[in-house]
């Protein structure tokens, strides 16, 4: 079934469609630009406020910390380093085999 043929638009309707399309695109770009500007300003204000608060807190923290630490301490002896056991089982097996052969 074939749809009925549409009437050919006149030059006035074509001109109106072109003008409306250009106007819609221009309004869309304008709205997008205004929205971008509003969000940019809001982001800059929020970032400035956070920077100002962080700067103020850092200043307070620097004034609150003493120049020295007062307290007692104990020097712990160094702990032995852990052995690398990736290759040790072969050597350990050989040593244990030779040790088991020795009879006191």
Topology:
Elements: H1 11-64, H2 88-101
By secondary-structure content and strand pairing, the structural class works out as: mainly alpha
Estimate the global geometry from the Cα principal axes.
elongated
Order of helices and strands: HH
Distance between the termini: 109 Å
Beta-strand share of residues: under 5%
What's the alpha carbon Rg, rounded to whole Å?
A: 41 Å
Largest β-sheet summary: none
Would you count the extended β strands for me? Answer: 0
* Arithmetic mean pLDDT: 83
Any low-confidence stretches, pLDDT <50, length ≥5?
none
Description:
The structure is a single chain. Helices cover 65% and strands 0% of the residues. With 104 residues, the chain is an all-alpha fold. It has a domain of 28 residues. The longest helix is centred in the middle third of the chain and has 54 residues. It starts with 10 loop residues before the first helix and ends with a helix.
Main attributes of the structure:
single chain; mainly alpha; 2 helices; elongated
Entry summary:
This protein is mainly alpha-helical and 104 residues long. It is built from two helices and no strands.
């Amino acid at each position: 079934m074939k749809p009925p043929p549409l009437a050919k638009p006149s030059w006035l309707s074509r001109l109106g469609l072109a003008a409306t399309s250009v106007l819609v695109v221009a309004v869309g770009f304008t709205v997008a630009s205004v929205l971008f500007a509003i969000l940019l300003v809001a982001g800059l204000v929020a970032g400035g406020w956070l920077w100002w608060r962080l700067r103020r807190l850092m200043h307070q923290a620097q004034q609150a910390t003493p120049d020295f630490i007062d307290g007692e301490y104990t020097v712990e002896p160094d702990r032995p380093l852990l052995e690398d056991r990736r290759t040790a089982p072969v050597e350990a097996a050989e040593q244990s085999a030779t040790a088991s052969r020795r009879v006191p």
